[in-house]
Structures are given as structure tokens and as C-alpha cells.
Amino acid sequence: MPIKIPDRLPATDILRSENIFVMTEARAASQGIRPLKVLLLNLMPKKIETETQFLRLLSNSPLQVDVELLRIDNRPTKNTPQEHLDTFYRQFEMVKDRNFDGLIVTGAPLGLVQFEDVLYWEEIQLIMNWAKDHVTSTLFVCWAAQAGLKLLYDLPKRTRKEKLSGVYHHRIHDCHHPVLRGFDDTFFAPHSRYADFSADYLSKHTDLDILATSDKAGVYLAATKDKRNVFVTGHPEYDVDTLHNEFMRDREQGMEPAIPVNYYPDDDINRDPVASWRSHGHLLFSNWLNYCVYQQTPYDLAHFSEASFTKD
């Protein structure tokens, strides 16, 4: 897959070692085609780890994808070198006058924080409102899905009593929906959140297409009728050891977390977990890029306002 990212980005060597086709800018220019312009708003503290996870999923497509990394503000972070942020990330002011084919907004460790108490809540609102007129399709992941529901449907924050952590069984609700094309009737996906996404609640208070649910985890996947907003409440991007690292971190902080569900063989934390969600994650992102972005976006992004968005 031709995914175009800076050669010096740490993800480049990782993806190449996995036999993922990372294209140089010179080779991309020689192809004479317009790549999809995708903006990744990375809200996670460990930005290098998260950007690599999402770039891996964006690589599973025959389309050429040009990814730009966006940060929410210029506050220093202890989890990512400042040089990395200065070199590879853009501020919103640098992109606000441009149009993009796709926008991905990642999760954030804000499960128990009220929206009005989030330090960058005004910036999130600004970017999500901007996306309505500048982005063909936006993919909201985990916390971002909850934030998107608040901004698009004015839904209040709903929180579970205990953290949802583990790999959960889901079933699809419309095998003919473009986002679900190629999906098995049931599949597994990781969750790590306090947010509550009740299927009944979303059905009553939104016009979203509910695409996939879990009896225990609630709604996993939903989309607006025009596919311009897609909500993923879990973490298809997670590496096999991400839930383990979160679990061990919480234990070291004295939080006494529950063992992630359906994750360790026989619930033995000394045994290596096995990824059971990888193929579904790649297919989800491939479908989003194809059916929600590529099939919908104008060839010339300068004519974005003239684009028509269909429901098929």
C-alpha cells in the first residue's frame, strides 16, 4: 500500500519492517495521481505509539494516502519528545484554510473528565465545527466519539460505573452498509473506556445508523446517513500488547484494575495475549477510506463545497 509519510517519522522504519509500502515524496509525485489528504488529530499522550498504530491501519488500501499529523495545542508533553512534535506535527492555524478528504480524531485519556473541564474543549469544538465545511468524512475514535456526539447531537456525557476493558464480541446490523462490507456477522474488537454508548439511547436521540453492537460493550460502530461522520467507540488500532500495558500501568498506580476481558489466555496475565481484532481493524479503515472518503470526495479539494454526499 502506498502510504506517504515523512521518511524520518519513527513509524516509517516500523512499517517498512512489516513489509508495508511507505512511499517517498519523489515516487508519489511521479505517479501523477492525487493522493487522499487525511488529517490525523492525535490526542493521545504517547503520540509516536498512537500515530504508528493508525498509520498501520491506513496502509491497508490500494489508494495513495497522504497523512498529516495535527496536535491540539502547543503545550509541552512528557510522553513525546518536543523535537518530534516540532518536526512532524502541525498546529490548527497551519491547516485551517485547507480542505481534507478525511479527518481522524483519536481517543484521549479523559474518560472521567467532564467536557467543560477538558483543557482543550474549545479547540476540539473549533476543529469539529471546521470539519463540517472542510472535510469529506470524519472518523471519531473512543473519547472522540463521545465528544462528537456531544457537539453534533448535544448528547450529555454518559459514564459507566466501572471501566470497560478487554476484547468484546460484536455483531453487525446491516451487512450491506458500505462501512461493513466484507465483515463477518460477528467479530472481536478491543475497548478501553468509561464512556457508555447505549444502543437504545443512541437510537432514541440520534438519526445515526447503528452498524455494530455488543451485548456488553454497547454500540461499537455508527455513522450518519451521509457517511460524513463515523463513530468507533473502541480501539481497532490497538497493538496486541496495548491493553496489557494499560493494565500493568493501572496496577502500578494502585488502581486495582480488573483483568481485561477475553484478552489473556485463561485470564492468566503471565501468558501472552493474542490479537483477535487485527483483520477487522484493517477492513474497517479500508472501507472508511474507500466508501466514506474516496467515493465521496471531489477530485479537486478546492471545490469541496460543491461535493454531493450520497446515502448509498
UniProtKB/TrEMBL annotation:
Where in or outside the cell is it found? Cytoplasm
Site description Important for substrate specificity, residues in chain: S192
What keywords would UniProt list here?
Answer: Acyltransferase, Amino-acid biosynthesis, Cytoplasm, Methionine biosynthesis, Transferase
Q: Has UniProt tagged this entry with the keyword Phosphoprotein?
A: no
Gene Ontology cellular-component annotations:
cytoplasm
| Residues noted as binding substrate in the record, renumbered to the chain | K163, S192, R249
Enzyme active site: C142 (acyl-thioester intermediate), H235 (proton acceptor), E237
- Please give the biological process terms from Gene Ontology that the record holds: L-methionine biosynthetic process from homoserine via O-succinyl-L-homoserine and cystathionine
| Name listed for the protein in its UniProt record | Homoserine O-succinyltransferase
Q: Which organism is it from?
A: Photobacterium aquimaris
Query: Coding gene?
Result: metA
